[in-house]
Fold each of these.
Amino acid sequence: MVLAGLYEPDSDGRRQPESLYGATKMWAHLRRQGIPVARCTVGRLTGHNGWQGVRRQKRIRTTNWDPGASFQNSAQVFSIGIFFSLMIAGLSRTLPGTLRQGLVSHGVSLAVADKIASLPPVSVLFSALLGFNPVQKLLGTKVLASLPSVDRTALIGKSFFPKLISLPFQSGLREAFIFAVVACIIAAAVSLFRGGSGNEDVTPVTAPEIAAPEAAIE
C-alpha cells in the first residue's frame, strides 16, 4: 500500500520524509505523484492506522514591546551626549589659558603654546579618560628636542598633564553636575504635579500558556 510505504519504517527502521505529512498534505503529495485518491480517503486511512504527521504549535511570545523602555534607552543616549557637550564647553573656557601657561612655564615658546592651546579640547578630554598624555604628540619631537632635559622630562612625565587639566576638568564637571541637578529637580516637580503612584494601571504579567497542538502541517 502506498501510504504504508510512506508512513511505516523500512527494514532498517528508517522512515520516508513524507512520513512527516499530515492527511491534507499527504493527499496533495499523492495528487502530485499522479495517484487519484480522495482527500477523505487519505484522512480515514491515516486515522485508522494511527499515522500522524508532525503537529505545529503556536509560537509562544515571550517578550512584549514596552514603549517606556524605548523612551528610557533614547533618554540615556541623549543624556550622555549632553554630559560630554557640557564637559567640552567647560573645558573650552578654562583649558586654553591653563594649557598655555603650563607649556610656557616649561620653556615652550609662546607661539607654539598658543597654537596648541587653540586646538579643540575634545582630544584632551578623551586623553584624560583613557589615561594618555598627549603633550608629546602635540609638541612633536623637534620642539621637545629643543627644550632642556628637565623641562622635557616634566612635560612627558606622568604628573604634568593630570595636574594641568585638573582645574579645567573640574569646571566641566561642575557644569555637567549642575545640569544633572536641575534636570532631577524638574523631573521631581513633574512627578509631584502628575500625582498618583503610577501603579493603578499596572497589569500583572503572567507566564504565557502553552497552546495545545493544532492540526497537522497543512
Amino acid sequence: MIAREALIAAYDAYLRALAEGRPESLPLDESVRFTECGQVMPVGSGLWGTVEQVGACYARFADVLLGQVAGYCAVREGGDLAVLMVRLALSEAGTITEIETVVCRRRGVLFRPEAMFAPSPILRKPDCPADREFLARVAHLYFDAIVADNAATLPIRDDCVRIECGEPVTCQPEDDERKAARGFDLYSMGVAEQIDCQFFCYCTAIKERRVYVDEEQGIAFAMARFDFPGTVRSWRFRRGEQRPTEPHQRVPRSILIMEAFQVDHGQITAIETIFENCPFLMPTGW
C-alpha cells in the first residue's frame, strides 16, 4: 500500500515535468514502461516533445491499495488544445514503474478541452461512500450494460451527468436542432435511457478492462478499449422503430477510453470520460 499523498504528489510531479520538458526529473524505475495512445515508446517521446502548455488538474484519482494514480487535464500543442489522461503505477520504493497516457486531439464532436482548465464540475466527495468491492463492480456493470443495450442491472441515478472530453452528453436541455437531426435528442436523455434505447448497439465489445478504486473519493476509474466493428447496419429505437445506423457507426474502429464513475448512496451519480479513436482492435499496450 502506498500513501495517498505520495500518489498525488507523483501525479503532480509528472505534470510539472511534462510542462518543463524534463522527464529526467522524475523518479523513474529502471524497468519503467511508457505508452502514448497504446504505443510503447521511450519516456520523453510523443507529447513530451510537442506540448506547449499543461493545464491545471481537472480530476485525479488514487488507488492506494494498488499503487495507482490517474487523472485528466487540458494541454496545448501545436497551437491547439488537447486532453491528456495520465495513469501512473508506483513501486513501494516510490519509483514510477508504469506510465500510460492517452492524448485526445482535435475532432469535430465530443471535444471541449477549453472546459477542462477548471476542476470537474460534477465530481465531488460522496455523502455515503460505497465499499471497494462495489465500486470495482460498478465499472464492469456499466461496460456490460453498454454491450448488452440493457441498463436494468446498472445502479445509476436518472440525473447522472456524463461528460466526454469536456462535453456534457446526458441530462441536457432538449435542443431542437439535435432533435431534428435524429428525430430524438440523445443528449437530453439520462445515461440508462441512452443505453436502453439501443443507440450504442454498434459497440459490440469492451475489452482490456482495468479497474482501479479511489475509496476516499468514492470513485472507480477504469481503462478499456471499446470495439466498433462497423458491421451493425440497423437498430431498433427503444426496441421498436428500425433505423439505419449512422455513417460513423459503420466504420471499423476502436477507442481507448478512461472513465471515472462517482458513486454515492449505492448509485452512480456522475461519469467523466475521455477517449481517443484508434484502429479496430488495436491493443491498449497494457
Amino acid sequence: MFALALGHQLFAAEGSSLYGEAVWGTVWGDPIVRPESGLLRKRLGVKRLANVVALSLITAVWTSSGRSEPATHNAELFPGPGASALTLRLELPLRDVLRGRSKARDDEEPVTHGAKLEVGDQQLELTVSRRGKSRQTHCSFPPLWLDFKKKTTAHSPFAGQNKLKLVTHCKNAYEKRGFLAAEMLAYELLNLFTERSFRTRAVQMVYVDSSSDEERTHWGFLIEHKKQLAARLEGSASKLNTVARSDLIADYSALVAVHQYLIGNTDFSFTHGPPDDNCCHNVVPITLSEKEPPNVLPVPYDFDASGLVNPPYAAPVASLSISKVTQRLYRGYCDHNDQALTFVAEIVQQKQRVMQHIQAFDTLPNLPVQRITRFVDKFYKVAESADRTQSRLVAKCR
C-alpha cells in the first residue's frame, strides 16, 4: 500500500490511516506533494519544499515495507472515527450519583458506587464515580468514570479495559443543542490528522436507577484510557509535575497547536498542570519509550471549552486577549513555527475532506452542522491566506 506521512500519521490512498513515526512529510494520500501549490511554495520556500517532497518519497518506500500500528485489544472498542454507537444499559444508584460529590473531601479517594453494565447479552460488574472539574459545577448529570472488574469483561467489547471516561450529556437541553456531538467531532478532527490522539466511541446509555427502576436514555461517548493510548503509541503516560518545552516533539506539538486553533480552544497547557494537579492541563504527556529527548507527545483532551462546542458555561481565562471562546487565539510555541506552517499548508490541501467529515457526522445526534461549518470555514479564511496566517498564528506564538 502506497501512503505518505503527515507528522506521525500515514494516510493510505483510499483514505484510511496507518501508523508511522519519525518522519515529518506529507500529505493526505496524494502520491507526492503538489509543487505547483502556490500557497505551499510561498510558505515553505523552494528549498524547504524540496526537502518535504524528498521526505515524503522516503516515507512512501518505508511504509510499503509493511510497518503498521501495533495491534491492541483496544481496537474493537475504539476502531476509529465513524464507528457505530454502542447501546449500553447501566444499572446504578443514579440518584446518589447525581446528588453526590466526586469526593467527600479533597484529600479523600473518589466516592464510588457499585453498578452493572449490560452490553448485548453480557452483564459486566463495575464501579462508577463522578469525575471532572468544571463540569461538576455546570452539569446536572456529570461525566463518569467506569471502573471495570477485568474478569467480567472477557469476550465483550470491553475486554482488556480497566477504567474509562464516559462523557455524558451534561444537561437535557445541552444534549438537544448538540454540544456533546460537537465535542466528539473535535476528537475526530484530530483523529483525521494523526493516529497519536485519543479515540472515542459513541454510546447510547440507558441509565437504570437501582433503587427505583426508573430509566433515562441519553447519548454519550467513551474516551480511550491514557494507558491504552500510551501502549498503542509505544510510550508511557507517567505522572509528571512539569514538562520542559525542549522535551516536546516539535512537529507533533505544532500539529496539536494548529488543531486547537482550528477548534478555537485555549483551555490547555503543554507544560504545566493546575496548582493542585499533575502536568498537564487538558493534555496527557506521552513519553516515547525508545527515543531520546525531545520525546514527549502532548496529547490533548477535553474540548468542551472550545469555540467549536461553545456551551453556555465556556469562557476564556481573563488573562487572554479574547473575551469569548468563539474568538480564536493561537497558543503554539514560536520555536515550532516552521512545523506549524507546514501543517497549515497541508490542512489547507485537505479542506474538502475536513468539511465532508463535518457534513457526514452522524455518530451522535443534533450536531449543529451549519454553525460548525461556518466556524471551521473562518479558520480556513486564515489558513488560506499567507498574510492572515502570519498575523494571526505566527505573530501570536509564545
Amino acid sequence: MSDDAGQTRDGDAGDLIGGREERIIEVVAYRPEWPERYHREKARLEAALGPTARRVEHVGSTAVPGLAAKPIVDVMVSVHDPEDESSYLPALEAAGYVLRVREPGHRMFRTPGRDVHVHVWKAGSDDEQRHLVFRDRLRASPDDRVEYEEVKRELAGQFRDMNAYVDARSAVIRKITRRRRASLSLPPSLRWLEAIPTGRAWLDSLPALLDECCKRWDLACGSPYPYSQVSLVLPVRTTLGADAVLKLQYPDAESEHEAAALAAWGGRGAVLLLEHAPDLHALLIERCVPGTSLSDAGPDEALDVLIELLPRLCVPPPPQVRSLEDEARRWATNLPEMWGKAGRPFEVSVLNTALEVLSTLPGSQGAQVLVHQDLHAHNVLRAQREPWLVIDPKPLAGEMEFAVAPIIRGAELGHSADAVGRRLDRLTAALRLDRERARGWAIAQTLAWAFEGTTVLPHHVATAKWLIAT
C-alpha cells in the first residue's frame, strides 16, 4: 500500500476506508511551505499522541528540498504496535485526521483537505527504516534527485490510477535505495541475507539505522568489522573520545535478548553494555583492546580461561530470556524436518539419539541460570579491564550442564574425537558437572545447529558422532 517514497497506493477495497478514488496525479515544483506544514502537523500529532508517538518524521518527496512532488505532505508516526489501534486511532480522529488505509503493519490517515497523509508504522520496523533510507539518499545525492524527478514527471502524465503510478516508480526507488546501502561497504559475511526478503529489507534499512544511532549517541564510525554473520558491527568513538563498538542486529530469536544478558552480567566477565536502543535493534558496547580471540591462545589456556569465566556468567536469568526447555522443544520439532530436507545426510540412529536426549533432559534440569548458547573461543576476546571478556551472547535460561555444550563442539580448539572428548572430560570435572547430561546437551545442540537451510555442516555431524561414541 505504501512505497519507499512514502506514497500510499490504493489496494484492495477491503483495505480502503471509503473505496477507490480516481484522482489526477500532479507533480509540482518544490514548495518551501512543505517543511513548514510538516512542523505544524508534527506539533499537532505529538500533542494528540504524547509518548505513544515514538518518532515523527517528514518522509516522501516533500521532505527533500528541491525535489518536485505531489503536493501532499507525508508524515511518518512510529508506534509500538500499529495493530493496537486503541492506542492511537481515537486520538488521531479527535485531532481531525481521517483513517483512509488499514493493512497489516500500516495505517494511513489524512486531513479532510487531503493535503497531509499520516502513516503509522511500527517503531524500528523495516518499513520505517526503508522510508528514511530513501529520503536521506535523495537529500544527499543531487543525481538521484534528478533521476527520480524525471521518472515521476514522466509517469504522472501516464496514469490516473494511484496503484499503477506507485508500482511504476518501484524500480527506480529500489535502485536508489541500493545505492545508499552500497555506500556502507557492507562486509561479505552479510551477503547471505540477500537471499531472504526480510534480510534484504534489513540490509536496505542499515544506512538509516546507522545514521540514527550516530545522531542519537553522538558517534563517529569506522569501517565495519568483516566477521559478523548476523549483525553490522563497527568501531565507534563518542564525542567524549571513548572507544566503543556499535552493533546493529538482524532481528532474530537467538539474539533478541542480548542486551538483557549483558545487563545481567554487568561487565563481570563480559563486555559492558553502554547503551541500548530496542527500537533500532542497536547496542553500544565496550570495545575490547587488543581484541584478539581466545582461540589464538591454544586449547589448554583457552579451557583454563573458560573454566574460570563460566561460573561468573551463570547468574540468575533475566525473566524475558527464553528457556532452554522451550528451545529444546523447538529443536525436537525441527530436527526431523531439517534432516529430511537435507537429504538424510547422516544415519537415522544419530538423529534418534538427539531426539531421545531432547525428550528426557529438558524436563529434568537442575538450577536455572543464564547460559550463553554460543560461548566458543571466538566469542571471548582479550581486553584490558579484565584479561578476557565474553561477547555476542545468545542467551537462554537453563542448567549449567548445557553451558559447556558450545565449548565442547567448538572446532577452533581442536576438531578430532580425542579433542572433543578431552574438552568434555575437563570441563565437567573442573566445574563438577554431570558428564552424561553435558554430553547429551552437546549432542543435541551440535545437531540442531548443523543445518544451514538444506545444507548440513559436516564438522558438526562428525562432532555429534564422536560424542555419541564417547
